[in-house]
Design goal:
It contains 9 helices and 4 strands.
Length: about 200
């Protein structure tokens, strides 16, 4: 009943002043509060949440070793939205011992095969990868493209990866060698929808 008879402009003025004062008081309180104290008072552990979101379940693509993005442990199918050149996952061409630059999401629609311990070192068509890895979903991408970021990484560290994996360096396409650090960064931001 009091508000019905109150001056609305005066009420709005004092409400605004009160909110400004509360905001200033909270700012001062947060400046004095230790960040550790703030984090301890949360009902979730932010670093665990971030870790679980970024790391997912810990499984990696059997070809390029991109991490599963399904998150947590409660899922039946692993997936990665951004696959890499397979050479980053230790894949090499048997005949040449050179690291592979193919992208597994493109390979699954190709006529090429792979060999590994899971196939008893026998050739197995990429198209039928589900027979060996039924819990992985690798959507086909016939564009034969990887992000410029991974192309840049593979190109820049080709010799180091080869030495680490005891293989010969990959045959890098000439176009990959022209990718700048800025293009690589832009590609990474685009892939993860960062502005």
């Amino acid at each position: 009943m009091i508000l019905n008879n109150a001056n609305q402009e005066q009420f709005a003025h004092w409400l605004t002043e009160c909110v400004k004062e509360m905001a200033q008081t909270l700012r001062e309180k947060f400046k004095k509060t230790n960040i550790q104290t703030k984090l301890q008072s949360l009902h979730v552990n932010p670093q665990n949440e971030l870790f679980n979101t970024l790391i997912g379940c810990g499984k990696q693509c059997p070809f390029c070793k991109a991490p599963c993005e399904a998150g947590a442990k409660a899922h039946t199918e692993h997936f990665a939205s951004l696959h890499r050149p397979d050479g980053l996952g230790r894949r090499i061409w048997i005949e040449t011992q050179k690291r592979c630059i193919d992208i597994c999401s493109s390979s699954v629609v190709s006529d090429i095969s792979f060999r590994c311990s899971d196939t008893n070192d026998q050739s197995h068509p990429y198209k039928r990868y589900k027979e060996k890895y039924p819990d992985w979903k690798t959507p086909p991408d016939a564009s034969l493209q990887a992000s410029d970021y991974w192309k840049y990484v593979l190109t820049k560290f080709n010799d180091e990866f080869a030495a680490a994996y005891d293989a010969k360096p990959a045959d890098i396409p000439e176009a990959w060698e022209l990718i700048t650090p800025e293009q690589a960064e832009a590609s990474l931001k685009e892939s993860f929808h960062i502005k």
